[in-house]
Automatic annotation (TrEMBL):
<dbReference type="Pfam" id="PF02958">
    <property type="entry name" value="EcKL"/>
</dbReference>
<protein>
    <submittedName>
        <fullName>Uncharacterized protein LOC108734748</fullName>
    </submittedName>
</protein>
<feature type="domain" description="CHK kinase-like">
    <location>
        <begin position="124"/>
        <end position="320"/>
    </location>
</feature>
<dbReference type="InterPro" id="IPR015897">
    <property type="entry name" value="CHK_kinase-like"/>
</dbReference>
<dbReference type="InterPro" id="IPR011009">
    <property type="entry name" value="Kinase-like_dom_sf"/>
</dbReference>
<dbReference type="InterPro" id="IPR004119">
    <property type="entry name" value="EcKL"/>
</dbReference>
């Protein structure tokens, strides 16, 4: 612990020096935990003058890795993944876009000031987006049409860079992917405690349906739970049509800035957070995760609108970089991927939508502490009282019904 504190103090001093602070005063304090794989703190660097007055300031967000339960969960791999994304993959993407003269490039990430990959001291220090009027979406409220469209277009721009580099500079693409821990998400979900939690939450979702009144939907969803859920939840997708995905697209991993904070349709900017589970996969793994965990019923009813929006944006972005979308990811392939891989979105929605309305998760739980405490992980993470929440049941029924009616399961 002392080593980690010394390292952090050194890094913060370096940030202050690099930003030309004179007589900096540094404060590190705890903050609300919104993610499950990191320990969050906020850092304030303030410049003071001889008379005691305040000058400029810098506000940072620290995310450090848990040191416990590393024998069962891939905390180190997840943090190394995110460090690689910020230090190598994303800078390469930005440089490529600049070389190609892209008019509207993907740049929806926060600034990472420092990172550390020393074992048991892994951490990243970011710009604190809340100080720039960025907000998390309220997870109990499905996203609006405009906000979904905004994320879909930004996702398309991000995936486009990956497709273009893979097609034009395959050696560069391979070098980048070789540095990622591509199995971090797979290993996380394959942990017995996590996998059991996914199963329990899916069983709660099944209980949103009556075996007789909803016989067709109940039986098809039950068949999915018994035969496909565990493999689907691992998020695997092979083939040649893969990109470096974001990998963890629930609402707490995006922050939004609104022109009018009271109008959720008035999105000005957004930032992707938490690149810990970035890996090689179909773009549909990202899109289905985001769409089914965050969208309202109206979005599901208009799926083709969002698919076309994504593909049109992808095509425009690829054209700017000199790649033909019909060569790397035609719409017919996209639709085939959706039929094959979109059920990943259903698998994670069973747990995420439960989390949204489960009072146990008003603040993100500390997974490492739960593992070490010896308590029943699945029971803590999943609470049967969720079935008394009518909003949860309505959203869960909507997602499952959509999958059955469209023949996706």
């Amino acid at each position: 612990m002392e080593q980690q504190e010394n390292l952090l103090n050194k890094m913060v001093k370096e940030i202050a020096k690099e930003n030309k602070f004179v007589n900096p005063k540094t404060t590190i304090f705890e903050t609300v935990k919104n993610g499950y794989l990191g320990i969050p703190h906020k850092i304030s660097i303030e410049e003071t003058n001889k008379s005691g007055g305040k000058g400029k300031s810098l506000h940072l967000f620290l995310k450090s890795a848990p040191t416990g339960s590393r024998d069962v969960l891939p905390f180190r791999d997840a943090f190394l993944n995110e460090i690689t994304m910020y230090e190598e993959v994303l800078p390469t993407f930005f440089k490529f876009q600049k070389e190609k003269g892209v008019k509207e490039p993907f740049e929806s990430i926060t600034k990472c000031y420092k990172s550390c990959s020393v074992e048991n001291q892994e951490l990243l220090i970011f710009d604190d987006l809340t100080k720039h009027n960025f907000l998390l979406w309220d997870k109990v409220v499905p996203m609006t049409k405009k906000s979904i469209e905004f994320v879909v277009k930004q996702s398309a721009k991000y995936h486009a860079v990956s497709f273009a580099i893979r097609e034009q500079r395959f050696d560069v693409f391979n070098k980048l992917t070789s540095k990622l821990s591509l199995r971090a998400f797979h290993d996380f979900c394959k942990s017995s405690s996590i996998l059991q939690t996914l199963v329990v939450n899916a069983q709660f979702a099944l209980k949103c349906f009556d075996p007789r009144a909803d016989e067709q939907i109940y039986n098809k969803f039950n068949h999915f739970l018994e035969n496909d859920l565990k493999e689907t939840a691992l998020g695997n997708s092979g083939g040649n049509d893969v990109v470096i995905i974001h990998g963890d697209s629930w609402c707490n991993n995006f922050m939004f800035k609104f022109k009018d904070p009271n109008n959720p349709d008035d999105v000005e900017e957004m930032k992707f957070l938490d690149w810990q589970f970035s890996r090689l996969a179909s773009p549909v793994i990202d899109l289905s995760y985001f769409f089914y965990c965050n969208g309202p019923q109206e979005a599901f009813d208009n799926l083709e609108h969002y698919m076309k929006l994504y593909h049109n944006t992808l095509g425009t972005s690829l054209k700017d970089m000199g790649t033909d979308v019909e060569k790397v990811f035609p719409y017919s392939t996209f639709k085939n991927h959706w039929r094959k891989y979109a059920k990943f979105g259903l698998a994670v929605a069973c747990t995420l939508i439960n989390i949204y309305y489960n009072p146990n998760h008003n603040e993100a739980l500390n997974i490492s502490e739960l593992m070490e405490s010896g308590s029943n992980f699945a029971e803590t993470f999943a609470n049967s009282e969720i079935l008394d929440n009518q909003t949860y049941k309505k959203r869960m029924r909507g997602v499952v019904t959509h999958f059955v009616n469209n023949g996706f399961i």
